[in-house]
Every structure is written in structure tokens, then in C-alpha cells.
Amino acid sequence: MNKEHVLVDREIALLEHVRRSGKGFYITVSILTALVLWGIYAYLTQYQTGLGVTGLSRQIFWGVYITNFVFFIGISHAGTFISAVLRVVKAEWRRPISRLSELTTVFILFFGVGSVLIDLGRPDRMLYAIRYAHFRSPLLWDVCSIATYLTVSSICLYLALIPDIALMRDLGWKKRQWFYEILSLGFTGTEKQWHRLEKAITIMSIIVIPVMITVHTVVSYVFAMTIQPMWHSAIFGPYFVAGALFSGIATVITIMAVIRKAYHLENYLKPVHFYNLGTLLLAMTLLWVYFTLGEYVTTFYGNEPVHMEIFWSKLTGKFAPLFWLHIVLCFVIPFPILANPKTRTIKGTVIASISVNIGMWLERFIIIVPTLTRQRISVEQALYIPTWVEWSIFLGCLSFFSLLYVLFTKFFPIIPIWEMQEGREKAVTKVEDRIKSYLPETGA
Q1: How far is CA 230 from CA 161, 288, 371, 373, in A?
Q2: Which residues contact 317 (CB under 8 A, 6 or more apart)?
Q3: pLDDT-derived band of residue 401, with 50, 70 and 90 as boundaries?
Q4: Backbone angles phi, psi at 209, to 5 degrees
Q5: Angle at 22 between CA 19 and CA 26, to 5 degrees
Q6: CA atoms within 13 A on the CB side of 217
Q7: What is d(CA 388, CA 295) in angstroms, rounded to the nearest whole number?
Q8: Rounded distance, CA 392 to CA 395, Å?
Q9: Helix, strand, or coil here: 337?
Q10: Mean pLDDT, to the nearest integer, of 169-178?
Q11: Do residues 239 and 291 lie in contact, with contact meaning Cβ atoms separated by under 8 Å?
């Protein structure tokens, strides 16, 4: 039976991208698939030939792949922050963007882990982390924290999907009904089920927040727990977490703009969402500058020769163009755009976000590579130039991530319908009651 009447008319538009696939969809899928295949070809070339086809060497053993690992894991923090944190503090404006941010977290984590496997050359060696587990190694801490984060984030995404899956099951789409029937777990929308679901979502939202902070702190420990110059730093933990939120929020803003334009969701992803996320991005810009300044000022004041060699290679040496470019991209461009409410528009925040993401990738690169070129014990002439294989695999990862996103939107609504309905029916009353609780009672 068709139960489309259960939907508010304004929410029917949220299913259009699931029901219909235009030419744009097939063109996009074709292009992304071609890029993914090119990335797979590059990886197979590396797998058959060895890491010699990359720019890596005995001394510079980490490059683009580990840069991608840190970058992708950082982006994953956006989903937790925007969905879980804003849900806990009851920020009502997060409703339309909660799912796309959660989806970003889950999908991008796979490519973070995948970057490590690609960097190993022989992916079977990943099993050594389990077979020869040694909990004094920060690498094993990484394995445990990321696995936990992926599990908890996936549960959060799935729990929030259940009501919409049940709704699509009840719409009577014969070709997919069996699929939605299985995933809905028998959810029928009774008061008892809603109570349990909302309680489970709240509990998982609270759990995932400390896990999020732990993950990128542990990622930073892979560097900070060594004695390599400019890595062995106590500030790396909070520095990496701040950078993760910085790049993650920027990624969500960029994805929002693409989804808004591609699926004509202007009535749901409004300028206020970009404005509010732009405000958060502004705050993270200032926090990132604070940690960056603290890191480099501390190094300069300490004036240890081995650290200063790398310090000056970044500021005035061969890495200076990349260093100052990342400063421009992460601060000089986004700060004036985001600091001015008049330019904190959709266009303005998207420009700032793209600038931030490019800059934050460069930041990870100049944290990793310069230190390896000047280790305490040099092995050989240090020179690292990424090859076409590395860039192709990077492009393939980005394309695969985008392809998964596009395919997801053909099975599930990208904006949570049940949250939008709940917002219309209950949120206004809840907000009014909450505001009244802040204000003093009027007495005679």
C-alpha cells in the first residue's frame, strides 16, 4: 500500500534524488568510476613493481600516503563534531546537515586506513599488527583507536538512518522493499521504539565525542612519541585535534554546497547553515593559528641546532614556498572572508573552505617530509618528489569517496526526513520551553 501521505508535502522533495536519476547522475558516476579505475591501475603498478615507483626512499619513508592518512582521519572529525556535539548541545540548525556530516566521517575513515595499507607496499603486513601486537607501540594504539572510532561512528550513522529506512519501506517501492525491510529492523514508529531509538542515539553521541578526540591525539603520537626533531612535541595532541576539526568543518561546507546545487535542496541547506558553520570555521582558524604559532615560537626559543635546521628549511629553505603557501591558504585567505559577516555567505564560506582544505593537506605534508630529510642520523641524500603513481592513487581515493557519496544518495535521503519532521512538530516548542527556563519568572 502506498503510504506517501505520511510525509509532509515539503519533505517529499527529499526523496527526489532517490527516485529519479538524470543524465547528470550517470555522467558523474562515469567520470568518477574512470578516475577510480585509473587510481586502481596506479596501485596495481605499485603492487607489482614495488615502492620504487614512488618518490619514497630508505630515509624519506613517509610521503603523500601518510599525509593522506593524517588528512583523511582529520576530516572524519567533522561528522562527530557537527552531528554529535551539536546534537548534545541541542543546536536545532544542525538537523539538515547531520547525516551528510556523519556520512563524511564513516566513508573517509576507510580511505585513511587504506592510505596506510597502500604505504606498506605489501598490505598483508598489516596483519603483523595483530599477530605481533605490542601495546607499547603507538602504531598499535592507532589501529585500536581508529577501529573503535569507525565502529562507533557507523553505529551512529545507522541508528539515525532507521526511521527513514522504515519510511521508504512503507512507500512500497517493490524493487527495493526487501532491502529496506531488512535494514529497518522492524521499526514501525511506536512510542516505545522512538523512545529507545532517541535514547540510543543520545548515548552513542556522547560516547563518540571522547573517542573522536582520542583518535587524532593518538595519530599525533605516531610522530610525537619519536625523538625526531620537530616531531617530539607535547603540543602535537591538541594541535592535531584542532587541525582535524579545522579541515573537517571545511570539508562539510564544501560537500554541503555540492549537494545543495546538485539536488536542488536550497530550501533545506540555507544560507544560515553556511553562516553558522562559517562562524565555527572562523573559530577554528584562530585556534589553528594559536597552536601553529605556539609550535614554532617554542622551537625558535629553544634554539636546538637539530630542530633549527628543519625550522629554517621551512621558513627560508627549500620548503619555504610550501610553508608560506599553507599559511596563506589556512589564514590569509579564509580569515578576512569569515571574519566579515557580509562575506560569510555561501560563496564566501565555500571559497574559504576549499582554501583551508588545500592548506591543511600542505600542512600535514610539511610536518612529515622536512623532518625526514634531516633526521638525527641521515642515511643518504634526502630528496622526495612524489611520482604520478602517488598522485594518481590520491586522486583515485578522492574519486572513490565521491562515488560512494553519490551512490549512497540513490538509496537513502541525504537529509534526514524524520529529523526535519520532528523539528517542525516539536523543536519550536522545545526551544521556547528552554528559553523560558533561562529567564526569571515574572512575579506579582
Answers
A1: 43, 17, 7, 12
A2: none
A3: very high
A4: -65, -55
A5: 110
A6: 10
A7: 33
A8: 5
A9: helix
A10: 77
A11: yes
Spatial separation of the C-alpha atoms in residues 96 and 87, rounded to whole Å: 12
CA 15, 18, 19, 21 torsion-angle sign: positive
Dist. CA 39–CA 34, nearest whole Å: 9
CA angle 120, 357, 73 (to 5 degrees): 40
Instruction: Give the number of other Cβ atoms within 10 Å of residue 127's Cβ.
Output: 9
Question: Which residue's entry shows cell 599488527?
Answer: 129
CATH superfamily of 4-420: Formate dehydrogenase/DMSO reductase domain (1.20.1630.10)
Predicted local confidence at residue 334, as pLDDT? 95
pLDDT at residue 316 tops 80: yes
* pLDDT tens for each residue of 226-258: 888 888 888 888 899 889 999 999 999 999 999
Contact between residue 74 and residue 360 where contact means Cβ atoms under 8 Å apart: yes
Helices (H), 84-173: 86-88, 98-120, 128-131, 138-170
Q: What would the grid cell of residue 306 be? A: 637539530
Buried b (16+ CB within 10 A) or exposed e, 275-302: bbbbebbbebbebbbebbeebeeebeee
Residue 97 grid coordinates: 546537515
With b for 16 or more beta-carbon neighbours within 10 A and e for fewer, the 93-102 pattern comes to ebbbbbbbbb
The secondary structure of residue 380, as a DSSP letter, is S
What phi, psi does 361 have (nearest 5°)? -65, -45
